[in-house]
Write a structure and sequence with these properties.
Helices cover 37% and strands 22% of the residues. The protein is an alpha+beta fold. The chain has a 5-stranded mixed β-barrel with strand order 1-2-3-5-4. Helix 8 runs antiparallel to helix 9.
């Protein structure tokens, strides 16, 4: 029920799960009645009945629905938690894991990935410093990254099962397997918020274009210096340049 096995009969999965005792109890009564040969007044088994009353509750929101699917069958079935971040992932320059391993060159890689945490296994090296292997999932598949002590200490709060994160990784091909190591881990919600929603400018008069271009160049230089600031800075610069 948690993964949608009965979706064709009833769409509200949470209602089915919370009403499981009612459903099973009714099924048991029907079986006892059938075994006892109970029938209606005409001597035939009852073929029609009223709808079984279930507990009144709303269905799980999408993220909980997906989490229940994963808990039940070990993978996401009807979607993926990262689907809600599609536009932000494009702006953040995220590469799908399947595209990363499809590169026929099999050379060292450096990429930005996003994933939903499946598991975290912490260990200690010979020096006593902790490190971790973190299993993740993106819409193209599952993968694993190694997180060394410094990155692990900074990102441990983000590495809980079900949490979606943004990763800067490097990797090398060893025996036809891509071994990934993390450079930086960020909370995906925070990274997506910083990436902004984008900005489109439509002009009926091309006269301000040179001025807008100068403002864009100023913003690019500013962002290279600060390596942050999102679309709000862009909007302020542009509006400041073409406004009254």
């Amino acid at each position: 029920m948690r993964a949608g096995a009965f979706d064709a009969l009833h769409k509200n999965r949470r209602q089915l799960v919370q009403s499981a005792d009612i459903i099973l109890g009714d099924a048991a009564r029907n079986m006892r009645d059938r075994d006892a040969g109970q029938s209606n007044l005409f001597g035939a088994a009852e073929t029609q009945r009223e709808t079984l009353p279930l507990l009144a509750t709303d269905d799980w929101p999408v993220h909980e629905r997906l989490a229940e699917e994963f808990a039940a069958i070990g993978f996401y079935l009807s979607g993926h938690p990262l689907d809600a971040y599609a536009q932000s992932l494009r702006r953040l320059g995220v590469t799908r894991y399947a595209d990363l391993i499809a590169d026929a060159r099999r050379s060292s890689v450096k990429a930005t990935l996003a994933g939903t945490v499946i598991r975290r296994q912490e260990r200690r090296g010979r020096s006593g410093d902790p490190f971790a292997f973190v299993g993740l999932s993106d819409p193209s598949g599952m993968f694993e990254v190694m997180v060394f002590s410094e990155a692990l200490a900074a990102s441990r709060p983000f590495l809980e099962a079900g949490r979606s994160i943004l990763l800067k990784v490097v990797g090398d091909w060893i025996d036809d397997e891509l071994k990934l190591r993390t450079i930086l881990i960020e909370d995906l919600d925070a990274a997506a918020a910083q990436a902004g929603e984008g900005l489109k400018i439509r002009l009926s008069d091309p006269t301000p274009i040179p001025l807008i271009a100068r403002e864009f160049h100023a913003l690019i230089a500013f962002r290279r210096h600060r390596n942050r600031d999102g679309v709000n800075g862009l909007a302020q610069l542009v509006v400041g340049g073409v406004g009254p």
